[in-house]
């Protein structure tokens, strides 16, 4: 609680040091990823382009168990990227290293946020914020992994094989820039989507939402979640939509559970019972 006696400029100076430390960690990680990028491209980033990717093996296994003969479960899949911009490989090398450093530095970012705000919190507030930041970190990485291993492969598999012409007169050729842009966008969007419980909890602390509000609009939220899932994975099959929509809806329900009941609401429920 000692930091409460600090002046505005002292807090600003401490914030400057926090930002420098975060940028320093990002920079060091980015250099490491830049050096390892050729291996990362072949074994991680481009892995969804090949038929032996773990999720495609899972699809084939599901197809065999359920005796499904649809091409979605049985078709061999491979994508070959093309580059039409002379400088694209170099700049993609740099930008990909940077974004991967941002993603993997998330735990340290939350740690620095915790260090900066914890002196100004009361003991019971520290416990709640520490728990929220811990859950937020785990959920972010869970969303990133789901985006990488499931959402992006499904999207790539659908869009790369989609034919505008019924006669197959148009050959799909995917550029390197297009692949990387969609890869980063979907993986990061899934990571951020899984921060919904943390954001909801913070909004509840500010008094903007509460449990009755979220419960009242549960059906509306379900419809919105299905629409968002359809946008994220624009495939035509219900399997893909379900795979994405169910985790997002579970996050909504988790958001409700994370919000504490108001004292008056709890007493009212007890009287009503």
Give a verbal description of the structure.
The chain is mainly α and about 270 residues long. The chain has a domain at about 1-160 and about 175-195. It has twelve helices and two strands. It has helices at about 10-45, 55-65, 70-75, 90-105, 105-115, 125-160, 175-195, 195-205, 210-215, 220-230, 240-260, 265-270; strands at about 80, 175. It has a two-stranded parallel sheet. Helix 4 (about 90-105) runs parallel beside helix 7 (about 175-195), helix 6 (about 125-160) packs antiparallel against helix 7 (about 175-195) and helix 8 packs parallel to helix 11 (about 240-260). The protein is flat. Residues about 265-273 have low confidence and may be disordered.
